[in-house]
Amino acid sequence: MSARSIFQRAEIAYSSGDAPEALKLYAKAIRKILADEDVTQPFLPAGMEPPDMPRELIGAIWRNLCGFFRDPALGFNATTAPDAYKLMASFKPSNEQHNSYQAFAKRGAHGLAILKAMQITATFTTGLMAWDKKDRATAARRYQDALALADTHPPFNSKSPKAGLETWVCADVQQTRDNLKILIDTDTKHAIILGEETIGRKETRELPKPSVRFEPDGSISLDDQVSFATDVCYACGSRGAKMSKCSKCKKATYCGRECQLAHWPTHKAPCKAVTSASAS
Ligand SMILES: [Zn+2]
Ligand SMILES: [Zn+2]
């Protein structure tokens, strides 16, 4: 059975209310394309696609698959939908030699752009899923990974993307950027409230006054504990999800080599104090 027919079966399952079956079929259809079909084959006849939809069949199915995992109301995750989740998670950015790399590479630049689109949207999706589990640090890391990957392909960062794949990915990239900015701004605010500007990711503190949190479902909750999603650059004060650490004390974090070098005269003494204290 062709991937297109499997996809049609998925849409029938979904419209009859069977989302788990639809998700299973999405994964099956994508595996079928990766195995022996053209990853660039069109989704609908030219001119019939909505402008924000990928023009490729694999992109259209991928959009639905990621969409299912992004909707907390559907309750899909690594436990409830292991096969589809495994497929999505295999499209992480570190997988430069993805096991289906050849299926994309043999279609040239267009094929490789589709692979990158799938990696960016999958990484953003796993970030959103971490966020739903209140794991802010993992969410921030995934958002940063997705943005770093988008930076390697300018059309996915365009302010006026072309209809199709680019419009779809650009919308995700913009949302990723917005979400990461919210995490960074919140951490910055909390660090100031706590008077501990160098507090780093995964560290948790009690807030003197509860902080208001806006949930994705529109509800509002109060938090009296905060866990940090980002690290701060000890030199310039910017925050981010991926900072490099001082190799000596493993504590000071920097946005880049320049900041680390610039900060060394200031950091030298505290760094020595930390390393000699842990050595004794
Ligand atoms: Zn810096
Ligand atoms: Zn150090």
TrEMBL record:
For molecular function, the Gene Ontology terms on record are: zinc ion binding
Q: Where is the MYND-type domain?
A: 233-271
Coiled-coil zones: none
Annotated signal peptide: none
Q: Which UniProt keywords apply?
A: Metal-binding, Zinc, Zinc-finger
Which Pfam families would you find in this protein's record? zf-MYND
Give the protein's recorded name: MYND-type domain-containing protein
What is the organism field in this record? Answer: Exidia glandulosa HHB12029
